[in-house]
């Protein structure tokens, strides 16, 4: 009788763990472009309104992780700001009002889609050196230095009506 209880408890445990994992995958799929946790640090600024940022991304393949890192860099400039690293980068995000991301969800879903317009505002810099860490059998963590065109990104968000133009005042 005791063996049956142990077997039943083990079965319930495995079923519960699979159900929890499936729920997490559904939540990740529903999240769309939202990146919950990423690392960025300022590496310097350029004269033409660019910010050099060291950013990390995750992916199944190294190329996927590089695209995710570029997406993370643009997302950080828009919504989080660049707080760590060398001085010079804009520490405040372009958008600092709560709820703007939800209000303009359709715009940002297409903006951050795979191969989306965010790629127009970010480029890999330097000699192409990549910090590559294999975190599991299936996942890579890639660190790259990118240039984010801050001024042009702001102009894009102003043209889309998401940000107020600086010339219009507060």
Structure overview:
With 170 residues, the chain is α+β, with helices and mostly antiparallel strands. The chain has 2 domains: 1-30; 36-168, no CATH class. 41% of the residues lie in helices and 19% in strands. It contains 5 helices and 5 strands. It has helices at 2-30, 62-80, 100-103, 105-111, 150-159; strands at residues 40-45, 50-59, 122-124, 131-134, 140-149. Strands 1, 2, 3, 4 and 5 form a 5-stranded antiparallel sheet that branches. It starts with a helix and ends in an 11-residue tail after the last helix. The model is unreliable at 15-32 (pLDDT under 50).
Keywords:
170 residues, five-stranded antiparallel sheet, 41% helix, alpha+beta, 19% strand, 5 helices
Question: What can be said about the biggest beta sheet?
Answer: 5 strands, antiparallel
Span between termini = 74 Å
Overall shape: it is: globular
The sequence of SSEs as H and E is: HEEHHHEEEH
Average pLDDT figure: 79
Concise synopsis of the structure shown:
The protein is α+β, with helices and mostly antiparallel strands and 170 residues long.
Any chance you could write out the topology, listing elements then pairs?
Blueprint: H1 2-30, E1 40-45, E2 50-59, H2 62-80, H3 100-103, H4 105-111, E3 122-124, E4 131-134, E5 140-149, H5 150-159
Antiparallel strand pairs: 1-2, 2-5, 3-5, 4-5
């Amino acid at each position: 009788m005791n063996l049956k209880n142990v077997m039943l408890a083990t079965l319930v445990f495995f079923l519960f763990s699979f159900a929890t994992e499936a729920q997490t995958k559904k939540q990740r799929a529903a999240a769309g472009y939202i990146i919950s946790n990423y690392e960025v640090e300022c590496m310097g600024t350029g004269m033409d309104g660019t910010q050099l940022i060291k950013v990390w991304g995750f992916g199944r393949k190294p190329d996927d992780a590089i695209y995710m890192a570029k997406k993370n860099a643009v997302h950080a400039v828009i919504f989080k700001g660049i707080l760590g690293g060398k001085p010079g980068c804009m520490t405040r995000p372009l958008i600092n009002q709560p709820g703007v991301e939800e209000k303009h969800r359709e715009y940002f879903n297409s903006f951050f889609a795979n191969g989306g317009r965010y790629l127009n505002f970010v480029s890999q810099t330097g000699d192409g050196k990549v910090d590559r860490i294999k975190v599991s059998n299936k996942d890579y963590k890639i660190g790259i230095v990118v240039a984010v065109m801050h001024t042009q990104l702001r102009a894009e968000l102003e043209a889309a009506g998401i940000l107020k133009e600086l010339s219009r005042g507060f």
